[in-house]
From TrEMBL:
Name of the protein described by the UniProt record: UvrD-like helicase ATP-binding domain-containing protein
Residues the entry annotates as binding ATP: G162, G163, P164, G165, T166, G167, K168, T169
Pfam families: AAA_19
GO BP annotation list: recombinational repair
Keyword Ribonucleoprotein belongs to the record: no
Length: 607
């Protein structure tokens, strides 16, 4: 039962549209999410079209150009719109309306205070209300600057850049869906979506269905479709850097040309990495002695046993190409977190597509190499390139933006530090504990947050990952293995070099000093890890804080939990769970840690 006449009217319109669609109506997503009334009349915007008939208002699909005015108008650019309404629909029920434009005027615009973006409050409210936080939700509230990028023609290279959480992924994926719906060649030739990590591939694969189109997804390592598969990691940054560098294309070409008989990419690469004299002969003028040394690896007993790394697989892909193997091709590709592409990786993507959208920010590359300009990457694609920039932050709460920006070099561009639309849950929580307790305390805090319905990411330095996973299994904690792309559980564990592109309600950071590692690359990784949350960030440490966060050592921010007097009065209860929930955050953490330690000790005694 609804109470507001406007809600009732919208409900009746929606009911009529559902009746007309019958069994063809979408079951897992609302049919409509917006309405625009302008000089060409009224129409709803939604997932699929419903033609206007007697008594019903037409529904146009979001990717239909007829939905354009819904996206092109905003509280600051009214056009001819009389009404721009965002509808929140749950099941088949209209539960809320937010009018960004009503009676031809902006209904509710936030003031343009310094660092407060000019966006209707209604949009912010719509962002927060009844949303699952997936990219599909953003379809309802795409902003004009995003929409313009989405509608750019497919041809050439389009770079979509912007700081963390500005909607680069949202925009690039909507663009691919838009092209698939409106460009015959793209529909026929297909779209490939490439991510740097398995974790991000899994995230993207989960959100694609809500955009209503099919694309092939691949992480960089899985582009190569030969005998070898990912088994190892280049732990030395220099090794990954050399393997990814452009000169390797020349070295591999020389390698293939130096062969007499037939060979496989796997055997060629094993030979090259295992024979210093051969490498020196082929790369003497291209790689310094130290760089050659960084490549050196004793061949494993068999191809299957070789610890193939991401960058090895990219080299194998180049070799396969040189040996005449054809990789599958697509009309368009989207590369997310493209700043992390090495030159060799860019070549592998370029071989597979005729046009490409590169989404990323050069300022926070977390790969082994760093590019100073997009031209360094776009030059691998045989096409004209152009750049578009997003500056409004949709994900990261303001206090977290403020704290994380301290990881960036002085004078970091506005691009890298976006304005933020969200307040989140206030200041980050900082806890200093004993070294042995850092992981248990962080995990129990994550568990507690997950118990309140949050999706939580726990981020540790890469070298801590395996031990932390073992600790979770030993203490019976169910935690998703983020390194393998397992993002389905309430709590996901991630190494700090794999958080790019991901998003959680809450993030628990373990030992930021280890993540920052005193290096520029480490600080970028810390920055990226901090900017993964939509609501809250908690930092757990035992050692002094790394550069940029030292102020938290001396004067830790108070926990955001209110003081005891604001809490509900304890009821007389003997229910342990209820009693436990009445504790303050800090006490609850403490009790949890004690229980977990007791459990761990008893497990160890039983071993
Ligand atoms: N117009 C929008 N309306 C509502 N939500 C949006 C909008 N644009 C982006 N978002 C949301 O903001 C969050 C961040 O978006 P997205 O992941 O695309 O940003 P990004 O720039 O790729 O971030 P990063 O590079 O840090 O991973 C997501 O939850 C996304 O759904």
């Amino acid at each position: 039962m609804t109470t507001h006449p406007a809600l009732d009217a919208e409900q009746q319109n929606l009911d009529r549209a559902y009746t007309l669609l019958g069994d063809d109506a979408p079951v897992d997503q609302p049919l409509v999410f917006g309405r625009i009334d302008d000089h060409s009349g009224s129409r709803y915007v939604g997932r699929q079209p419903v033609a206007a008939g007697s008594g019903n208002v037409a529904v146009v699909a979001w990717h239909d150009p007829a939905a354009g005015p819904f996206y092109e108008t905003s509280a600051t650019d009214l056009g001819t719109a009389q009404l721009k309404r965002i509808l929140t629909v749950s099941g088949r029920q209209v539960i809320a309306l937010h009018d960004e434009i009503a009676d031809g005027s902006a209904f509710d615009v936030t003031s343009s205070q310094a660092n407060r973006p000019m966006v209707g409050k209604v949009v912010v409210a719509a962002l927060e209300q009844f949303r699952t936080g997936t990219i599909g939700d953003a379809t309802a509230t795409l902003r004009p600057e995003q929409y313009r990028i989405i509608r750019e023609p497919a041809a050439g290279v389009l770079v979509v850049q912007g700081g963390p959480g500005t909607g680069k992924t949202v925009t690039a994926l909507h663009r691919a869906a838009w092209l698939a719906a409106n460009d015959e060649e793209v529909r026929a030739g297909g779209v490939l979506v490439v991510t740097p990590t398995v974790a991000l591939r899994s995230y993207v694969a989960n959100v694609l269905p809500c955009l209503g189109f099919d694309a092939v997804t691949a992480d960089v390592a899985s582009l190569y479709d030969g005998d070898a598969s990912l088994r190892g990691r280049d732990t030395a940054t220099e090794t990954a850097r050399v393997k990814g560098s452009a000169v390797m294309a020349v070295v591999l070409r020389r390698l293939v040309e130096s062969q007499d008989g037939p060979s496989t990419p796997e055997n060629l690469l094993r030979t090259l990495l295992g024979r210093p004299a051969l490498l020196d002969r082929l790369a003497d003028d291209l790689l310094k002695a130290g760089q050659q040394e960084a490549l050196r690896r004793e061949p494993a007993p068999s191809v299957a046993a070789e610890p193939w790394t991401v960058d090895d697989l990219v080299l194998l892909d180049e070799l396969a190409h040189l040996l005449g193997r054809q990789a599958p091709t697509y009309r368009h590709a989207v590369v997310d977190e493209a700043q992390n592409l090495s030159p060799m990786q860019a070549r592998a993507v370029a071989r597979r597509c005729r046009s490409v959208t590169l989404a990323g920010d050069l300022g926070f590359s977390t790969g082994p190499g760093k590019h100073d300009s997009w031209a360094e990457l776009t030059s691998y694609f045989a096409a004209e390139s152009r750049e578009a920039t997003l500056t409004l932050g949709y994900r990261v709460p303001r206090p977290v933006v403020e704290l994380s920006r301290r990881q960036l070099p002085d004078g970091a561009s506005a691009l890298t530090v976006p304005g933020s639309l969200r307040d989140g849950l206030g200041n980050p929580l900082v806890r200093r504990v004993d070294p042995d307790d850092v992981v248990p305390v962080a995990l129990s805090a994550a568990d507690a947050a997950a118990g309140t319905g949050f999706k939580v990411g726990v981020v540790v330095a890469a070298h801590r990952y395996d031990a932390t996973m073992r600790y979770c299994s030993a203490s019976g904690l169910k935690v998703g293995d983020g390194r393998d792309g397992d993002l389905g559980l309430p709590v996901t564990l991630l190494p700090a070099d794999m958080t790019n592109g991901l998003e959680f309600d809450a993030v628990a950071l373990v030992a930021p000093d280890e993540i920052a590692d005193g290096t520029e690359l480490g600080r970028r990784r810390l920055y990226v890890a901090m900017t993964r949350c939509t609501q809250s960030l908690a930092i757990f440490h035992s050692e002094p804080m790394p550069a940029g966060l030292e102020h938290l050592d001396r004067k830790p921010s108070p926990a955001r939990e209110p003081e005891v007097e604001h809490r509900p009065k304890p009821a007389a209860t003997d229910d342990l769970f209820e009693l436990f929930n009445l504790l303050r955050d800090d006490d609850r953490m403490l009790v949890e840690v004690m229980i977990r330690r007791l459990l761990r000790d008893s497990l160890e005694r039983n071993d």
